[in-house]
Amino acid sequence: xxxxxxxxxxxxxxxxxxxxxxxxxxxxxxxxxxxxxxxxxxxxxxxxxxxxxxxxxxxxxxxxxxxxxxxxxxxxxxxxxxxxxxxxx
Amino acid sequence: xxxxxxxxxxxxxxxxxxxxxxxxxxxxxxxxxxxxxxxxxxxxxxxxxxxxxxxxxxxxxxxxxxxxxxxxxxxxxxxxxxxxxxxxxxxxxxxxxxxxxxxxxxxxxxxxxxxxxxxxxxxxxxxxxxxxxxxxxxxxxxxxxxxxxxxxxxxxxxxxxxxxxxxxxxxxxxxxxxxxxxxxxxxxx
Lengths: 89, 189
Known about the structure:
Chain A is mostly helical.
């Protein structure tokens, strides 16, 4: 096995993401360099993500929806008037 | 533009979906937004390292996602596609002339690394990674994306993701003092 590779890495990542980490994987991570790093880095990033979730104030979805609607109308208008603009030039 | 009139006019053509020109209807978007808004903004903030820029890219990502003509997709694919749009926007921003790009964009080149300080705060440590490294780590360990999804999102070769992820993880682990094992420094050199 390569130094940068472990067969259990994806299993560990999936377990961390799904919250199904068991003692067997934890025990393995204790003796595997790759998985120990995965565990440490993933724990840090999850804390970062949770910290951001607590501090972020997101606008209502309607704000984004209205903006996208306006964009869609602009696109539709530009598409519909393209022949006219071409004829004028 | 009279915004009130524009909104009123839009409501008339909002339904059915085909007339709206958007890829989903409003209730579906409300649900999708509830699932993705926080994670996407978190990804952009931590990858860009610049909050105002991240918020601009975040709004633009949703607009482009909603007005795109990409084929129908399930919820996971739609989420992955949204992150791909955001990642492309970040890359476009970094490709602009240096004065317009965020400071982190410069780090995409092979700049000499400053000496590691194991006492760095974790967030500072993450900010010292290259933008691409931050993207890879966030997608893998926060989003739970597999290598194929990361490749789709970043435009990198699927076969190279494992090694790139390993290098990024190793570097971050060192920065946050995760490793005091002898010889580990050799791995990143």
